[in-house]
Every structure is written in structure tokens, then in C-alpha cells.
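Complex record, two chains
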Amino acid sequence: MAMEWAGLIGFVAVLILCALRIPVAVAMAVVGIGGTLSLMDWTSASYIMASLPFEAIFPYSLAVAPLFVFMGVLAAQCGLSSSLFQGMVAFFGHRRASLAISNIAASAVFGAICGSSLATCATMGRACLPEMRRHGYAESLTGASIAAGGTLGVLIPPSILLVIYALMTEQSIGALFAGAMLPGLLATVLYMISIRLQARRNPALAPVADPAPWPERLKALLRMADAVLLVMLVIGGIYTGLFSPSEAAAVGAGGALVFALIRRPLDWPMLRNAIREAAETIGMIFFILVGAALFNFFVETSGLTQTLVAWIADRGFPPLAVLVTLIMFYLALGCVMDSLSMILLTAIPAAQVMTGLGYDPVWFGVVVVSVVEIGLITPPVGMNLFIIRGVSPEMTMATLARGIAPFLATDAVRIILLIAMPQLVVWLPRLLGLGRY
Amino acid sequence: MTRPINNQNTSRLKRAVCALDRFMNAFTNCLAAFGMMTLIAAIMVVVVDIVWRRIFHHAFIGTVDVTQFCVMAAASWSIPHAFSTGAHVSVDLLGKIAKNGFALAMEGAARLIATLLMAFLFSLSWQRAMEQWSYGDVSQNLSIPMIAFWLFLLSGMVLSAVVCFVKFLKLVFTKETT
């Protein structure tokens, strides 16, 4: 039992170090090294640990992560977000709350290119916020709808978080992408319904915009064609079996580069910003992977997960109660930790426990990613809310908290639907015969 | 008499540390840019391979090796850049309630721990890299020596350790957290 306790203490130690502002990757690596040395002799521990950083970066399947990051950064730099928003406004017309609804739809499409919630939120924020404000939208609805729309970036495939979960739990990336497709669309539709209901209840939140002439609308629709084409190329390529996920990521990144060149001359500031931003994100992701490899090796050596599964089985806890407890844990953790770190810290043990209880690992992955994303819009620490405040410093946290409440309720409904109807996740991977289906 | 000389020395040291910090920022920036260029090279190789496969019904040999090589360079050389720009994710839980001195001490500790960690990982990885070199391990298709892949990682690690140490020194001398 002593070894399992070491694993549990390790988890607590990581959380304490994180709270003391030690970077998450450094905290995981330090606890992983210290913990492994406490469980094994120096020779064996150092021999295994010497390979872990290399093995964390080397696999070919990991190429998908930097390529998708690069694609997203280029898409953000070349103004796709703005065209998408204008195109969606043209598509949804100029009815009440159409700008907020268009923002959600544009975030969903941009999220499919970008794969990151924070980047989707920041980019869409810059494109939509001034326009919504100009049309007299309430600050609470403006900020909250952009922050909530940002969370679609990680749910609608391709998503970097889903790739990381797939690699860590040895699931098919294609199956996870297919599994997240319907929940992503469901989230988009539910957010739109929520906005419509809010606007119906309080018309002052979202005034009716002036209708634009039809030629202008058609032009706006055409301008977003390259973004839609890019999404169809990547997603369609994976689902039709034309490309592997890594190849699709390379094609997507190449496509984004071409569109960036076509849309505007590739000037030095744009290229420098894209390179800097991509390098920061890639460096951050890969170093977290190194930290997670060291920490997860320690947790596996401690046997904590197996003991936890056996303990839950012995006590006869209902699997649903365990799932709900885990979701509550993720929601609480999401208030203080970013989603990537949460997934890397907990994905392996959590997936092992849940599959041990008979849950589908692909379904669980989609549920976990959906849940950790809620943390991004939970006041007062949700990262997307801070991003909105970064774009618009005069927007107060109280305003954002007021506006975000209906979206949080929508998220709760979505999670309940995903738990009640697992087919929402597993239907598409089964239909396409992806992974082990 | 000793105080002015000490102040002068401290000021000179401070300037030297700041200059070193600027140099490391610029250097890691350039290295990360090289890494991103290798990523663009990987994109081109994969896209050409897909088109080739569709037209001539056979794939290039070694696309996987080239992609792994490029991604290894991009990832390993981006890690020091992320340290340099402070992009590594940390949780600011106590930062808001902690006193300024405590927050500075924590920041210093974080940088020192990161320095020691990267140095430790470098020493461990170095041994394994030398072992693989002595065995003459090569990649699967193009027989690229594995030591070439290791060199990216090792250079990334040693640079990260240096960056973290310089950032630690900068904090000690200037109390600046950026």
C-alpha cells in the first residue's frame, strides 16, 4: 500500500507546486523524478528516465500537434476569423441577436481550423467585439458569447486536446475526432438557442442590426469560402481515409500557408508573429508532454490507478456515481488549472478507472474534454474570461460573470445529454469504422 | 569607501545580466524560427508525398523519418523559446493574495528549480544519447543516425537550462519578473 500512497502524495505535491507558481510541466517532472527515485533504485530509475523525454517527443503520431498549432496560428494571422464572422452575419441575416449567433457559428468553424480555445477566443474577440459593441449589444452578452464560443475550439475537431488525450490513452485520433463532432455541433446549436432565448427574454441585450444589401452579403459569404474549404479538406480527408491525422495536419497547415499568401502579402511582421506564437505554443505543449511522461511513469510505478480501480470495485460504488464525482473533480480543478495540464496530469489514471468500470474510452475522452473546457469560462478564474478582458479591459469580471451564467447552464445540459446518450459520441466513429469500432 | 565600489560592481553585474538575458532571448528566438522552418519543410514533404501517392500510386520512402526529424527540431528548439518568453503554463493561485516579496521568492524558486531540472534531464539524456551513438542506432527508412535526433533534444535542454539560469540571475539582480 505504501507505493500507492506515494502516488497519491505525488498528485498532491504537483497541485501544491502548481499553486506556488511553479510551471505545471516543471512541477510534474520534478515530482515524477523524485517519486520514481523514491520507489526504485538509482540505476534502474535513471536508466528509464533517461529515455522518457526523448520518447515523449519522438513518436511520429505526435507530429499532428505542432502541425495543427501552426495551421491555427496562420489562420489567425491572415484574418480568417474576420471573414468568417462577416460571412456568418451574412448567412444568419440581420434578425435579433444575429451578431452573437454569427459569432458562435464563426467560432465553431474557426475552432475547427484552430484547435485551441484560447486562440479561438482571442482571435474571435478581436474580430467580433468591436462590431457587436458598435451595434449596441449588451457588454455581458458580447463578452460571454465570445468566451463561450471560444470553448468550441477544443471540442470541434481537429482539436489539440483530443490529440493529446488520444496519444496518452492509446486511442485512435480519428475515432476521437469523429466522436467529438456531434457533441461539438450540439454545443454550437445549444449556445445559439441560449442566445436566442436570452434575446427574446430581454430584447435590450441584442438589438436588431440594419440589413446589409444582398450584393454585400454574397461577397461576405464568398470571402469565408477558403476557411470552409480548409475545414472540409482536413476533416473530410481524415473521415474519408484520404489522409492519416498527421497528414491531414500537414495538409491543413500547408493550406493555411497558401491561403495566408493569397489573402495578403506575407509581410515580415505577420510571419514573425506567426513563428513566435507557434513556437511558444509548441514549446509549451512538448515540455508539458515531457513533464507528463515523467510524472505518469511514477504514477504507473506506484500502482495507484490499479489500486483505485480495485478499491472502487470492492466498495461497489455505482459507475455513474464515480463518473459524476470525477466530473465534479474536473470542474473544481478547471477553476485553477488550464485544460491541457489537467488532461496530461489525470488522463491516464482517469481513463483507466473509467474503462475499468465499463465506460467507452473514446466517449470518456470527449466527456472529459467537454468538462475541462467549462473551466475556461467559469468565473472568476476562467482563462477565456481573462482573454476577453485582455481584448476589452473596460469589461468588468462582474459583467462577464453575469453574462456567462446562461452559457454555463447550457454546458450543464450538454454534459447531461452526453452522459444520458453515449450514442451522441460513439455513433459516428462506429459508422465510419474508426479505431476499434 | 567600499560601498560605492560595491554599488558600481553590482550595477555592472546588473547590466551584464540584462545584456546576457537580451542575447539569450534573441538567440532562442532565432533557434525557434529555425525550428519552425523545419516544420514548414516537413509540411512540404508530407504534401508532396500525398500528391505523389495519388498520382503514381507509391509513396516516398522516408517521409516518416523526415517528418520526425523536422518535428524533433521544431519541438526541441521551441522549448527554450517558451522558457525565454515565459510561455510555460503556470497557475497563478497564490500570486494574487501573496505579498510581493513572497511572489518574487516563488518566481526565483521556480526559475532555479527549472534550471536544475533541465540540467538534470540533460545529464541523463546525454548518457543515453552517447549509448545510442556507440551502438550506431539509425532511423528506420533513411538510416539517419539517431544521435542527430538526440542532438536536437540535448541542445534544447542545455539552452533551456541556461535560459532559466539567466532569468534567475536577472530576477536576483533586477527584481524584474519579465
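Note: The mean pLDDT of chain A is 86.
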